[in-house]
Amino acid sequence: MPNQRHISRLQLPSYLKVYNRNTDKPMGFIGNVSLDGMMLISELPLLVGARFEMRLKIPGHPAQRFIDITATCQWCREDVTPGSFDSGFALVAPPAEYVEMICALRRYFSFRHTATSV
């Protein structure tokens, strides 16, 4: 008898898209994040050493939220997936909304036991 999943999976690349704040054109999606940086997965290589004005569009109800960040590209390399590139960014003075997002992601993806052990 096959197991059936009861919890639907979220496709994070669909939710954590990154846009150029000045042009509103998509740059890629978040691969991973930390309090002072992030990795962006994109279709094009990005210029190492360049500073980028980015906008994270966070889906929500009743409305979508924006988190504007400024980040400097530290490195860029081809991803294992053909046609994709990974770029590491150092954030310049991350806003409070970004820090809140990191904390929310940590809570969401943590596997902490809330029940007391016997």
TrEMBL record:
- Name the source's superkingdom: Bacteria
* InterPro entries referenced in this protein's UniProt entry, alphabetically: PilZ_domain
* Signal sequence coordinates: none
| Annotated PilZ domain residues | 4-91
| GO molecular function annotation | cyclic-di-GMP binding
What stretch or stretches form a coiled coil here?
A: none
Pfam families from the UniProt entry: PilZ (PF07238)
The molecule here is called Pilus assembly protein PilZ
Origin organism is Pseudomonas marincola
